[in-house]
Amino acid sequence: MEKKVSGKPKSIEQRKQLYSLDGIRGICGMCVVFYHLVGTIYHYQPYTKIVNHGYLIVDFFYLITGFVLGYAYDKKKTSLSAWSFVKRRFVRLQPLVFLTSLVPTFFLRYLNAPSIGWVNYGDVPVLNRVVLLILATLNIPAQKSLVYSANPSMFPLNPPQWFLVYAYIGNILYIAVLRYCRTSVLCVCAAISSICTGYMTFTSEFGYVNGGFLLNDRKMAPFGIVRLMTPLLIGQVISRVYQKQEMKSKEEEKKGKKSSGGIQFAFWIASACLISMSKVPYLRKEGESAYRNAAFDTAAVTIIEPLILMVIINGCQPSQWECDLFVWMGKMSYPLFLCHHIFVDFMFCWVANNNLTFDYVWIMFVGIIVLSVALAHFYEIYFNEPVQKWISTRLHV
Description:
By secondary structure, the chain is mostly helical. It has one domain (about 5-250, about 260-395). It has helices at about 20-40, 55-75, 80-105, 125-135, 160-175, 185-200, 220-255, 265-280, 290-315, 320-340, 340-355, 360-395, and strands at about 5, 10. Strands 1-2 form a two-stranded antiparallel sheet. Helix 1 runs parallel beside helix 11. It is globular and about 70 Å long.
């Protein structure tokens, strides 16, 4: 019989090293929460905020998405229909979108920060709120006329939801085109996309590879597409190489050869690298060109993050307790990413209205991170898993 770790079989088909990917998603989720919280104090100003490159975590999420899609579905490209794939991704991603958009419709009415141009949500017409909720549930970006805050996000009820728009685009591109492409074609496409990333980053005002989430800039949408495609394609290439390496390892095992093991403490090394990368300060002095920061961002997306991913997937077999921890962190990461921003909004308004500093509110940061993790766990166990099971039964997923 196959021994199980938190419902997942420990077999050759399900490499234990890949549990570390679940764990690193949890680390990424907490990094995003901290980045957004720190942004409330420093108003996302590059010269002052202490977690300046936290936005690069989003690109790492897309990198993981590219890898996981290839690893999970490449072998099924002849047997898996596009409709079956769409149903699976819908069940995986969409139920939490409704819940994390519904909750803010009740609580955002308490937000009011005139000093930063934030309209009191209680003054927003009820019809507008209903329309915003419907659009968010359908994953359709809101029109500018419906946006009430100073930050014209695609999804005013839950700004991090913009990530899913591009994630869905990536999923559609994979099932329609990318899974049929040769590895050499994917490499060429990844190289071209990397060049586009460098160009858009070097020509941006602040030298950031940070875009795709606002409605008030025509450059945002193409920036978002390029920002998606580069890590997604690189993740696909890494997946193809890894699968070939895996097949070679299986053949060697059949011949009685021992595997060479892997990188010791791969998960912890990768986590430290990601956190350190997010804490790199803004690489530009006032009055200078932003080319140094642009170079760092481009290198982070095209070189550093792929290397971190390769460290994770080539790590040593984690222990039993690590597997259990990583599986839980993986389950918690997606709801954490979607549920935390309501706390960020409250913090943003509180800080702005009272002109507070980081030294005054840092203890609140810790409390909000703990509360966000607890809420994410609650959403996953008591809403997401039951609803996914219910929908899966009816859609025959």
